[in-house]
Amino acid sequence: MTGPAPGPATDLGDAVLGEDGVARCVWAARPGPMQDYHDTEWGVPVAGRGVERETAYFERLTLEAFQSGLSWATILAKRPAFRHVFAGFDATVVAGFGEAERAALMADARIVRNGAKVDATVANARAVLELRAEGPDVFADLLEAYAPDDQPRPRTVAETPTTSAGSLALSKELKRRGFRFVGPTTAYALMEATGIVDTHLVACHRRRL
C-alpha cells in the first residue's frame, strides 16, 4: 500500500518529483540501486514467521551496524558479498564462527573489514540464538514491540528523526540481551528499514502510515 498522492508542488516539502512523476524521499531521487531499494524494500514490514523472519531481521541489524560511519550506498553495493560471507545471515552458522572464519572475513575485500563489527555480528548471532531458545519469534517480536503509538510525519529532511525514545529503549534492551553495535541511532535505522517506524516523507509515494 502506498500513501496518498501529493498535492501541489508546494506540498512536497523535501520530497523530489522524479522524471516518472513520482514523489520520493530526497535520497532516492535518482534512478539506480538506492531508488530501487527505497521503492521496494525500505520501510516494508518483515513478513513470515520463525527462522525466515528472524533471518530477515538479523540481516538488517547486521547491515545497519556495518553502515555506521559509512554511506548506505556502500553497504547496499556490498550486500551480496555480506550475504555470502555470513551464510545468508543464518544465525546458527554465524554463531559458530571462530578465529579461522574471522581471519577470512578480515581478508575479504568485498565487505567492510572492521574487526569490531565482525565480532559484534558473531556475538549478535549468539544472542539471537538465545532468544530463539525462548521461542521461534521472540527476537522479531521483541523488535516490533517498540513500534511507536504515534508515527513521525516528516515533511523535510530536517524534520526526520534519527533516534527516538523507542530506539533508546530498544537499544538498552538489546544490549542487556548481549547484542553489540546497537546504539539508539542504529536501532532507529533498523526500525526505519523494517517499517517499525515510517519516516518516508509525507509526500513520498511509499509513505504507509
UniProtKB/TrEMBL annotation:
SUPFAM superfamilies: DNA-glycosylase. InterPro entries: Adenine_glyco (IPR005019), DNA-3mA_glycosylase (IPR052891), DNA_glycosylase (IPR011257). It comes from the Bacteria. One of its GO terms (molecular function) is DNA-3-methyladenine glycosylase activity. Keywords: Glycosidase, Hydrolase. Its EC number is 3.2.2.20. Pfam families: Adenine_glyco. PANTHER family: DNA-3-METHYLADENINE GLYCOSYLASE 1 (PTHR30037), DNA-3-METHYLADENINE GLYCOSYLASE I (PTHR30037:SF4). This is DNA-3-methyladenine glycosylase I. It comes from Nocardioides imazamoxiresistens. The lineage of its organism: Bacteria, Bacillati, Actinomycetota, Actinomycetes, Propionibacteriales.
